[in-house]
Design brief:
341 residues; mainly beta; Nuclear Transport Factor 2, Chain: A; five-stranded antiparallel β-sheet; 5 helices; elongated
């Protein structure tokens, strides 16, 4: 293979390696983009032997020699674009656009961008062969990381598919934060609902200028009557954060604790914040988020909440509870606040 995957690093960096806070382990060879991200994860974790395993041909004679390429690097952050496929397996190749922010020990950051060629040998007649990196070139650019992805991998090559970097980053954060707790692995990949995205225009209480944010909803898991979602909010400044929704903590007393058919009292004894909403629905016209949780079954006990997006955050304005397990739909409000922008 051509040894030019990181030629610019030799002249940009030159001190002994000292990696910053170690990122979580990632070894995902299920797609070309995941393979590239796993490569940089291995480099950031100083696992250079693992990094070399992602190549079709070894990029260096030893792991130590490979590590020398990244001498002086404290962190490398990578973003990838939509891969462009060519040919059919076992000879199919993917052009994977990427941009890398390389931070040195001196705190200075240089952005490099280019493309890798990834081989797909998954249909080979012999033993299983996962995706492998065959070749690539990344070079310094003056563009910011989010704007550095190339539009073509060759000057006369086809235009690459558009990339939603905000969604990509939010997805990475969601998978890192909720990948295990959401228990999505019992659902076939083709049955997983795609993330939903909503544009929000709003004005903060202390500002006269309108701002724009983006709300992204991820499917978490589902049960007999309920579907759970997690939301992320991306602001124009570039910050992406999970959304926590305030809900009341309830003290529910029944006339008979065994049947729970008749409610004696419902008291709000505090508030908590949680990232998951059940059966959530967002109305972009009114900037309203609603959620409805079935406790036992349709038409029985339940709880519903309503949150208004104002001044840059979701505020709880109403919460209704049907605490009786009597087979009837009879909710009552436990919180009623100002319902408006």
């Amino acid at each position: 293979m051509r040894h030019r995957l990181w030629p610019a690093l030799f002249c940009l960096l030159g001190a002994p390696p000292a990696l910053a806070g170690e990122p979580a382990y990632l070894d995902d060879r299920s797609s070309p983009a995941a393979l590239v991200k796993s490569l940089y994860n291995a480099i950031n974790r100083a696992e250079h032997g693992r990094a070399m395993s992602y190549f079709d041909e070894r990029p260096a004679d030893t792991a130590e020699a490979f590590a020398e390429i990244f001498a002086g690097t404290s962190q490398m952050r990578v973003v990838t674009g939509e891969p462009l496929a060519e040919g059919e397996a076992p000879d199919r190749r993917f052009a994977v656009p990427l941009a890398v922010a390389v931070t040195g020990e001196d705190g200075q950051t240089q952005v490099l961008a280019g493309c890798y060629t990834v081989l797909d040998q998954s249909d080979a007649a012999d033993d299983f062969a996962p995706y492998r990196i065959a070749d690539g070139l990344i070079e310094p650019t003056d563009a910011a990381l989010e704007a550095a992805l190339p539009q073509r991998c060759a000057q006369d090559g086809p235009e690459l598919p558009a990339t939603d970097l905000v969604l990509q980053q939010a997805t990475t954060m969601f998978e890192a934060g909720f990948g295990e707790s959401c228990l999505r692995d019992h659902i076939a990949a083709e049955d997983l609902p795609a993330p939903e995205s909503f544009r929000i225009e709003f004005r903060r209480a202390w500002d006269s200028e309108m701002e724009e944010a983006r709300l992204i909803r991820f499917f978490c898991t589902r049960g007999a009557y309920n579907e759970f979602h997690v939301h992320y909010l991306a602001e124009a400044a570039g910050e992406i954060m999970p959304v926590n929704f305030v809900v009341p903590e309830l003290d529910i007393r029944y006339e008979d604790d065994d049947t729970r058919e008749s409610v004696r009292s419902i008291d709000v004894i505090g508030f908590t914040a949680r990232p998951e909403l059940v059966n959530s629905d967002y109305d972009p016209d009114t900037l309203t988020m609603t959620a409805h949780s079935q406790w036992r079954g349709v038409g029985d006990a339940s709880a519903s909440g309503k949150w208004i997006f104002r001044s840059g955050a979701f505020t709880l304005v109403r919460y209704d509870v049907d605490a009786s397990y009597d087979g009837e739909i009879n909710p009552e409000p436990v919180i009623e606040l100002i319902d408006g922008p």
